[in-house]
Each structure stands twice: as structure tokens, then as C-alpha cells.
Amino acid sequence: MKTYRKFRLFTTILPIILLLTLLPWSEARSLSVPRTVITPAAEITPINPAASSEAADLLSYLSDLGGLGMIAGQHDYLESPDEFNNKLKQASGEYAVLHGYELGAINNQSQKTIAKQRQGVVNSAIKWHKGGGIVVMTFHQSLPGTAPAWANVQMGLSQEEFDAYVTPGTAQYKRLIADIDEVAVYLEQLRDADVPVLWRPYHEMNGDWFWWGGKNNFLKLWDIMYNRLTNVHKLNNLLWVWNPNAPNEWSDEYEPYFPGLGKVDVLAADIYNNDYKQSYYEKLLKLSGGKPIGIGESGELPDPKVLSQTQSKWVYTMTWGKMLTENNNLQQIKSFMGNNYIVSRTDYIKQLAARPVKPVPAQRNGLTGQYYNNTDLSGTPVLIRNDAKIDFNWHGDSPAAGIGKDSFSVRWSGKIKPSYSEEYTFTASSDDGIRVYIGGKLIIDSWKKQSGVSHKGSIRLAAGTSYDIKVEYFENHGDASVRLMWKSPSQKQAVISKSAFSY
């Protein structure tokens, strides 16, 4: 892990007059600017009470980092989710920690192409997290109901027209919800892979260049997305990043668009044109109440020396896509990534290894799967493991080493917790036999040889109540697949996600 002794020594022994001569920007040079020091009254925790342990750990790390170093970040585009992150590594020898991804489609792609590109983003993000990095997601959303084009992200919208999108029951509101539900499918994959995400929706809302920008009731839009993704889709892996533009001649001050500390986990500002004014930092820090703050987007790499001395609470910065090489030369990139104050991915991995290990929670999400080398669940299981969900298509292969390709069976058990108090319909598709028990009641019973058949069973459940669930399956010969879905009047049909299960 890099240490910051040189930095601490520097700030301790050098006279103020030398500091003044080193600072290249006029506003940062003025020590008459009042300093805002925020000391949190308590530990910073996610705004979502049900946040995953991974999300809580990430927020804790960011909170602890303030004043000690700044994470390097690099954004990539939907069509090429690793391009500039790899170029940064090639140029400097180090990866950034923060890998920025895009879920918005802006090039008039077909729906099939968009789905393929978004899946590529998800696959990269899972790999990045497993390799020891942090994932941040941006969503340049076209105006709901319009083609996926940049012009429709930047579409001018009057206040009256915007109001229709945040008014429940309107056609525009329904299109907005449909868009959110569509992107949630990909965020759910990240949740089920235990990937915490810095989620920065509707950024730069204090400017007027996006359809959601400059609106006097922007907070309604923020609340709609938060409630939909948190309460309906159970995306407990998200940390909510409120990310305005730095207030300048093109954008308003922060405060009119701020949802409040109870609705954001991280605050960030987008800063371009090498304009790292002290006022942008001071105002955001004051608003943060001790929560982490970052530079959400930039074109030019900031000067670590300057920021470490006068803006030390920034915990990360993220360079936007191709601006890495268009706005910075090779020497600037190397110098930035090699600075002792900047946290690279190598540094981050070492820092995580040195942090105290937190106790594993007694309850985990998912189901316990017991795998048998026979078709009747008899004897001792060959394999016992945690499965995130029941959605497998093994084709003609074995589920795992030591288990035959044919004539095997599985019993999944644990708890299931619904979000609504209403009747739920469960759908089990299998090749071959399937049985489903909820709360001790057998609701699906088709224990026979069959090929790709779906069976349904319904039961009334109470919101927030944990019910025993047991699913039994056997494979006879040939292809093997099994999937368990559910739906209710308030919840569209979907594969039951990991967050609904516990064991």
C-alpha cells in the first residue's frame, strides 16, 4: 500500500509562502478562502436500510479515505466497456480503481443490439469487481418513449411537459417506469453477483442540456427512480450518487436540486475545462454533511499536489472516456497515476486486505442446494452449495464436478420474503421433474419425466414475512434445465432473485 508520509511531512514543515508559490490556479492559491471541515456525528451508513454488506463496506471505505488519498477512475462507453480503462493501464502501467460504465443507448441501436451491449457492460463489471475494482454506472436515458439517440437525451422539455413524466398514472409516467424496469434487469444481475455499484442517475441536473435538467421538481424524478429500484426491484447493492455539474455560467447552484442527506450516499460534481475551483469543492463539502464527495466526471486530470493541499476530501475522480487521451498527454497520465496521493487498483487491493475483517452475517441471501447422484434425492448429497437463484440450463452437461450428466436430483431450501401482501403465482419450468413447497404447502407437483414444461401454483403471502421454501428437481436423461419465477398484481413475472431468498 502506498503511504502518504511525504504528503504529511510536506504539509507539516513547509511554510505557507512556499505553498502559495506551488499552486498554479488563482482561486486555489488564495488561503483567505474559508475552509469547511465536516465531522460526521456518526458512522456513515447507506440510505437504504436493506443495503447489502458489500455496498455498506464500500461506503465505509470511501468515508474513511477522505483526506488520505484520492481514487483514480476511468469511464468507458456502452459500445466498448473496457477500451479506455485498458488504455490507461497501457499508458501508465496501473489500472484505475473506479471503472465507469454506461447503460444508456444513444446511437439509434436496435433493441437486440442494446441488450447485447448492456450485457457486455454487466459481464465486464462483474469481472472488474472480482478483480478488485469499484464499479460506477451512468445512465444517459433518452426521453422515455423516444428512440435511443443522443438528441433524445438532450431533448428540450418544458416544465409542463416534464411534469407529466413525474405524475403517476399518465402515459408518460408509465413509459418512464418501463424504462427504469428495463435497465433494472441488468442492475439485478450485478446485485445477484454481489457487485456493489456507485449508481449516478440523472447527473448534471442543475444544467439544462438533458431533458431532466433545470426542472423545479427534479426531486420527484429522483424519488421515483429510488423507490422503483429499491422497493420494487430490491437493488440493495446500489449506493446512490447525487452528481450535479459544478455551478458555473452554464449551471445553477447545487442546493435547489439536492434531495437531502437522507436520499444520497455520495455527492459528486462534474468539473471540466481544468476548472477545479475551490468554491466547487467547498460548497459540495458543506452540503455533504460528512458523506463522501467525488469528482464525477472530468476531462483534464487534476493536479494531485493541489488537491491534496486544498481539496483533500475528494475521494475519487473519474476521467470521461476518450478525453483521457484527447485532453491529457502521456506524461500527464503517467505522472497522475504514479503520484503517491493517487490510489490505483493495486493500492486499493492492498488497502482492502489490510482493513479489519467484518464478521459474516448469520443470514445470507440465496438458497442451499443439495445435489444427489440419483433421481430420488436419496442418501448423502454429493455437493452442498449456495445458489443465488433457480435458473439453470445445463443442456447435456453436469451441474458440477462429481455429479453425473444424467440421473441426478437437487433439493433447494431456505426462506423467501415477498414485497407485497397479495396472491403470488409461482411458475416452475423444468426438464424433468419438479416440486415446489411454500410455507410447507405443496403448490406445484409434477414429479415425472417431461421436456421443458411449465407448471403454475398460487398462494397468498404477506409482505415482509419470511416463508419456508423447498424446491425439488430431478433430471432423467438428455437436456437438463430448471427455472423458478413468480409474479403478483404489483410485481411483473421474473425469475426470483437472490435478494428474495435467505438461508
Write up what this structure looks like.
- The chain is globular and about 70 Å long.
- The protein is α/β, with parallel strands linked by helices and 503 residues long.
- Helix 6 (111-130) packs parallel to helix 9 (171-192) and helix 9 crosses helix 10.
- Helix content is 30%, strand content 25%.
- Helix 10 (218-232) links the parallel strand 4 (197-200) and strand 5 (238-242).
- The strands form 3 sheets. An 8-stranded parallel barrel has the order 1-2-3-4-5-6-7-8, surrounded by 5 helices.
- It has 15 helices and 21 strands.
- It folds into 2 domains: 5-354, TIM Barrel (Alpha-Beta Barrel); 367-502, Toxin - Anthrax Protective Antigen, domain 1 (Alpha-Beta Complex), CATH 3.90.182.
- The longest helix is centred in the middle third of the chain and has 22 residues, at 171-192.
Biggest pleated sheet: 8 strands, parallel, barrel
Please report the distance between the alpha carbons of the first and last residues. 37 Å
The level of helicity is 25-40%
Q: What's the alpha carbon Rg, rounded to whole Å? A: 25 Å
Q: Could you say what the CATH topology of the largest domain is called?
A: TIM Barrel
How many domains is the backbone divided into?
Answer: 2
Mean pLDDT: 89
CATH class of the largest domain: Alpha Beta
Strand order of the largest sheet: 1-2-3-4-5-6-7-8
State the helix count: 15
Tell me which CATH architecture of the largest domain applies here: Alpha-Beta Barrel
**Secondary structural class:** alpha/beta
The CATH superfamily of the largest domain is identified as Glycosidases
Unreliable sequence segments = 1-41
Number of DSSP E strands:
21
Strand content: 25-35%
> What gross morphology would you assign?
globular
